[in-house]
């Protein structure tokens, strides 16, 4: 998107690994044009399920997202790439599952 001048990227002064990405005027124009089409397509996809099923799907996705965030915070904190050794070769050990 940056190469197509639809977005601008600037490094954060505090942490150069982070970047701020914002849409350019051309990016906003494209978004305004495409978003209604995407929203309409999503609505057509959802036509095949009723409101109760859609609510159940939404709840299931919320639970799965929360679990993924929890697992990421438990497992990923102690995993660091040893760049001097040529990358991330450390074996990740998952915590024991309960029940």
What does this structure look like?
The protein is mainly alpha-helical. It has a domain at 7-68. Helix content is 47%, strand content 10%. The chain is built from 2 helices and 2 strands; from the N terminus they run E-E-H-H. It has a two-stranded antiparallel ribbon. The protein is flat, with a radius of gyration of 21 Å.
Q: Whole-number radius of gyration?
A: 21 Å
The portion of residues forming beta strands comes to 5-15%
Q: What is the overall number of helices?
A: 2
Rough shape? flat
Instruction: Report the structural category.
Output: mainly alpha
Overall strand count: 2
Side-by-side strand order of the widest sheet = 1-2
Low-confidence stretches: none
Mean pLDDT: 86
H/E series = EEHH
User: Main β-sheet: number of strands, strand sense, barrel status?
Assistant: 2 strands, antiparallel
Tell me the distance between the termini.
46 Å
Classify the helix fraction into a percent range.
40-55%
Record keyword descriptors for this entry.
99 residues; mainly alpha; two-stranded antiparallel sheet; 2 helices; 2 strands; 47% helix; 10% strand
